[in-house]
Amino acid sequence: MGEVIVITSGKGGVGKTTTTANVGTALSLLDKKVLLIDTDIGLRNLDVVLGLENRIVYDIVDVVEGTCRPNQAMIKDKRFENLYLIPAAQTRDKTSVNPEQMKILCEELKKEFDYIIMDCPAGIEQGFKNAIAGAQRAIVVTTPEVSAVRDADRIIGLLEANDVHNVRLIVNRLRVDMVKKGDMMNVDDILDILAVGLLGVVPDDEGIITSTNRGEPAVTDAKSLAGRAYRNIADRITGKEVPVMDLEKESGFINAVKNLFKKK
Amino acid sequence: MDFFNFFKSKKESSKDKAKERLQLVLIHDRANVSPEFLEMLKGEILEVLSKYVEINQEDFDVTLTSAPNEDGTREVPALVANIPIMQMKRPEEINNNRK
Questions:
Q1: Residue B26 CA: distances (Å) to CA of A161, A163, A190
Q2: A&B contacts, CB < 8 Å
Q3: CA distance A168 to chain B (A)
């Protein structure tokens, strides 16, 4: 019996979809059977981040309305064994699906997959309620900014109120240089404020943009620091204990190497 | 004192400012206090206190804010009431009111 995990944040643009794509791919590389569901109906994006946009036939609304079977809507990623996507509908809106339907669908799909990861839309309305309806676990993504942390706090409260008690935090887009200067909140500051367990820290990494440009998740890039952070997160989701990497040391080293080549 | 720290310590770092502001705003967010709730609370406090003292109702005010906890490690929510007393009531007056 698999587990349903919702990836959410409240605020938009903090990296939910990127996190879903990377954590999902990393889990599939650990030999887990993974289904990603884009629940952002009307603003479909997970397909294009994963590079699967040309293979869509059916979507989540088709599944819920019974136009097709769930298996027909699943796009199998040819590059990664065990990775599947059910895309969001692009020409419908959030009210085309309700939480009760999502719950039933999750229950059914859990029999077939180790992990079902729901990419939640921004906001706290219907789309959010749909995305969390069938979830046992939640991953809250935030960035070290006041707006994102405030929204994360609100989301954590709403998850609790909706009986999702296993909630953990990813601090995304951390800039080590700014933290060092005291110009950005560090991970401890954020944990102090939010009082929630930490799942991982992902550094700000240009590699995320270039890999998304290509439609290839950063976890497949051995050189990407963010990719490595996501692989560690996937390990922790499976229950393995992996220490949080020392970003200061790592990025210091990588910059040193980069500078070495630049000088030539 | 370290030469560099001397210049640094002059100004509060922006991340400390961010943390401080967040802690304050979250106290309000979490408490989910509406103006109606505060008005109700104010009304009842006034009612009870008026049995014993005469209060300047115009300047009477109750607000939700934050204050450091006992060991000063973190900010906690606090209700602060400003209750200007005009006059204490005499015991016989109080007894009459209670009947």
A1: 17, 21, 12
A2: 39
A3: 19
The CATH number that applies at residue A180 is 3.40.50.300
Structure-block tokens of residue A23: 């954590």
- Count CA atoms within 13 Å of residue A126 on its CB side: 10
CA-CA distance, A32 to A115, in Å (whole number)? Answer: 7
List chain B residues with CB under 8 Å of A153.
Answer: 26, 29-30
Confidence band, pLDDT 50/70/90 cuts, at residue A254: low
Domain with A14 in it: 3-262
> Considering only CB atoms, which chain B residues are within 8 Å of A157?
30
CB atoms within 10 A of CB A17: 26
Alpha-carbon distance of B70 to A82, in angstroms, equals 54
- Report the number of distinct structural domains present in chain A: 1
State how far the Cα of A112 lies from the Cα of A124, in Å rounded to an integer: 29
- Better-predicted residue by pLDDT, B50 or A54: A54
Of B14, B16, B26, the CB nearest to A193: B26
Contact between A182 and B13 using a beta-carbon 8 Å cutoff? yes
What is the Cα–Cα distance from A126 to A145, expressed in whole angstroms?
25
Instruction: Quickly state the pLDDT bin for B1 (edges 50, 70, 90).
Output: very low
Per-residue pLDDT tens over the stretch A89-116: 999 999 999 999 999 999 999 999 999 9
Sequence-separated (6 or more) residues with CB below 8 Å from residue A29: A80, A219, A231, A234
Rounded (5°) CA angle A15-A17-A22: 95
User: Per-residue confidence at B92, pLDDT binned at 50, 70, 90?
Assistant: confident
Write the pLDDT tens digit of every residue in A191-225.
999 989 999 999 999 999 999 999 999 999 999 99
- Whether residue A150 and residue B18 make contact (CB cut-off 8 A), yes or no, is no
Q: Report yes or no: A112 at the B interface, CB cutoff 8 Å.
A: no
